[in-house]
Amino acid sequence: MLQVNVKTDDLLKGVNLTVSVSEKKSTLPILSHFLLEAKDDSLIITASDLDTTIQETCPATVYSPGKLTVPAKAFHSLVRSINTESINLKEGDQLTLEFVAGQFKTVFFGLSAESFPQLLKEEEFVCRRLASKDLINAIDKVIYSVSTRDERYNLSGVYMVLEEIEDKKSLRLVSSDSKRLNISTVSDSLVDFELERGVIMSKKGVQELRRLAETVPDLEVGVSFTSVMAKTPTSLLELHLLEGGFPDYRLVVPQNYDKSVKINRLAFLETLKRVALISEEGARVGKFEFSKDNLHISLINSTVGQAEESLSVEYDGETLATGFNLSYYVETLSSLNSEWINISFTDPKSSFLVTGPEDPGYFGIVMTSTY
Predict the structure, then answer these.
(1) Could you report the per-residue pLDDT of 135-168, keeping only the tens digit for each?
(2) Which residues contact 176 (CB under 8 A, 6 or more apart)?
(3) pLDDT 10s digits, 226-240
(4) For the whole model, what pTM was predicted?
(5) How far apart are CA 39 and CA 9, in angstroms?
(6) What's the topology of domain 253-366?
């Protein structure tokens, strides 16, 4: 029966990394629990929602091996409140866990560990190392445009595919909500990365992958037929792949734009934020008017008022006007690093392409809207 002593800081790190995966309102009670397993010199904490499973290993003094489950939210909250150096955990009768920290003592009621979802075996994955900063940078450029519409299931995740770009192996992440499409690329830190086909990862799973990458300089990632696994020295993360095929995103990227605007990214971003302040949630379509070296942005809200602002740009094309959801550009510009961005297009009704010299491998496509 499980009995361990674990440092509070180590346990807190473990539950902080895993609690976001546990389901708060699941029809399966086991998914709102942590699985605690004591073996060797470690306490292993696992959380799962069936689609995403994460496991964190904490150093511990193990007096007796064993495993059982405890309510994740309550356990996490309690560990956060403890100020003693260590915590003693001891399994009792009828799936209970005694929790002792200094003079404090409580008992958790658990569920059978046998019904808890299990990770796939590590040997089913060929994992290769990726630089965390490159992966985080790529995720940040696509995560916000994942579709939230139930009827577009194949767009409800991030598409990951391995391609040869300019004779260089590159890992591309792609997302789209049918109104915009974002493509980001990881190439510099790829070492013998293996991916036989493009796969779709859930938005929640990709968010957990990003959280895990923040904890280490680099991590190992591998793909099986059904899942993606990411590993650090103390963590395992498994993401079940979404079924279905992702549309061929290459067909959406036009190659023959004949007009281009160069804009200071931060100035553009601040202008959009100010103009959008008078808009209503979900109704942020503004008018963009391009003229020589000038972009005029305006928005009318019938119940609040109107706002407008002009900013200097580099543009030498014909005068034209079109409409955009301002939020799309705010999210795109917030994710980029370039001081200056380029917006390319052919006419006011076509899609507009966003790129930046300091964001290599990134392409953002935004569809126009009626203003």
Answers:
(1) 999 999 999 999 987 666 778 899 999 888 777 8
(2) 145, 147, 155, 182, 247, 249, 252
(3) 999 999 999 999 999
(4) 0.91
(5) 19
(6) DNA Polymerase III; Chain A, domain 2 (3.10.150)
